[in-house]
Write a sequence for this structure.
């Protein structure tokens, strides 16, 4: 398997699905194994181990695997470990080529599927055109979601946007603030569903 | 030329790329279930009808987003419906898995009498027997409401396009066009997955059906849990 293919798999197959597939295979194997053992005990009863136990045990294992899956997501380097901004607590600031870029999202708490106000404040010597923000999720293509910003005061820009909800349950989002002809800076934070 | 014209292409390409990533994860289990349910028969027409239904729903949602000019108003109005559809999809995949694995008969699910005596059982029987592939169209129409991040992103763009239009009709068609482009972009990936899962190319299918039926049961339960927690 080429490194390109491996990288594609890692980036394009959502983590939840990869974890879920592992859970499914595990659950199926365990269900079959346990059902065989219990079958002997139930011989003579009206109940059929094959017809009833496999789905029941598989369901139980599936629920148990949800916990393991959450652990796997937390340990994934493309997920929560990269958080560099506590946007729920207040604005976040980062340096970019001699400038400081401060991002704030209002109202608090910052929730998905709500109209949000994005505010970027710049400081430093350099002059730049109005910045913009691209919202996305690391390792998962959520489609283009750009927040255009307009100047409201000197070096303060604002715009309206929406952070959508990922049905997998992942809530770590990335706001990439681009300052034309200067560069980009990434803010990674958790939103509330 | 309107300012939304380049966006149609952007969202067509977005649909295509998202289709091979996110959509395969979200809709793949359903598409695979539908193909396996056909048990080796031709999957192309049913899958095309399912995808057509899904794209029509996307287009209508885009049109509504365009008219409303607001993503949040639209999604808050259909949230409960989407939750219900997620649970329904889970139940559907679960029942297909149970039936295909031979663990439970249709008679036991829907009553021991005439299994086609209720509307739901009759509909499920038609779907399972797939004598008339047209049933896959309403199924696609309904499952097009499944909650999905990239679909939401495309709806945001549809609402914005609607805000820029001059009349209500333009609002509708601007929003609808964007979602139509996005939906069409997602079709190739799901058709490919559906075709591969059609099993026409596998000689010994018995074991595959058994394993698949267990996986379908588990995926169905996962969808139901997600629907309840959504």
């Amino acid at each position: 398997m080429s490194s390109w293919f491996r990288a594609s798999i890692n980036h394009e197959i959502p983590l939840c699905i990869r974890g879920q597939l592992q859970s499914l295979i595990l659950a199926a194997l365990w269900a079959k194994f346990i059902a065989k053992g219990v079958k002997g005990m139930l011989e003579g009863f009206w109940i059929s181990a094959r017809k009833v136990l496999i789905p029941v045990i598989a369901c139980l294992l599936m629920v148990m695997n949800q916990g393991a899956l959450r652990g796997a997501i937390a340990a994934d380097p493309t997920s929560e470990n990269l958080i560099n901004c506590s946007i729920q607590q207040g604005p976040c600031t980062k340096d970019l080529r001699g400038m400081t870029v401060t991002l704030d999202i209002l109202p608090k708490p910052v929730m998905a599927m709500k109209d949000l106000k994005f505010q970027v404040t710049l400081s430093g010597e350099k002059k730049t055109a109005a910045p913009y923000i691209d919202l996305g999720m690391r390792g998962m293509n959520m489609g283009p979601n750009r927040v255009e910003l307009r100047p409201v005061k000197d070096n303060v820009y604002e715009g309206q946007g929406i952070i959508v909800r990922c049905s997998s349950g992942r809530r770590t989002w990335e706001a990439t603030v681009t300052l034309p002809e200067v560069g980009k800076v990434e803010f990674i934070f958790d939103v509330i569903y | 030329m309107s300012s939304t014209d380049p966006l149609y292409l952007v969202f067509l390409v977005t649909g295509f790329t998202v289709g091979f990533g996110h959509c395969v994860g979200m809709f793949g289990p359903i598409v695979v279930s539908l193909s396996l349910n056909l048990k080796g028969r031709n999957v192309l027409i049913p899958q095309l009808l399912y995808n057509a239904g899904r794209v029509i729903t996307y287009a209508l949602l885009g049109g509504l987003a365009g008219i409303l000019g607001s993503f949040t108003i639209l999604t808050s109005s259909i949230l409960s419906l989407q939750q219900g559809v997620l649970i329904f999809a889970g139940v559907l995949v679960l029942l297909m898995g149970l039936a295909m694995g031979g663990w439970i008969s249709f008679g036991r699910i829907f009553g021991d009498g005439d299994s086609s005596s209720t509307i739901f059982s009759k509909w499920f029987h038609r779907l399972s027997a797939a004598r008339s592939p047209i049933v896959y169209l309403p199924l696609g129409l309904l499952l097009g409401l499944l909650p999905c991040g990239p679909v939401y992103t495309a709806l945001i763009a549809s609402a914005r396009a609607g805000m820029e239009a001059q009349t209500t009709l333009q609002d509708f068609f601007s929003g609808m066009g964007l979602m139509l482009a996005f939906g069409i972009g997602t079709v190739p990936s799901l058709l490919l997955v559906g075709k591969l899962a059609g099993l026409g190319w596998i000689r010994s299918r018995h074991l595959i059906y058994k394993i698949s039926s267990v996986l379908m049961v588990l995926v169905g339960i996962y969808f139901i849990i997600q629907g309840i927690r959504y």
The longest helix of chain B spans residues 5-37.
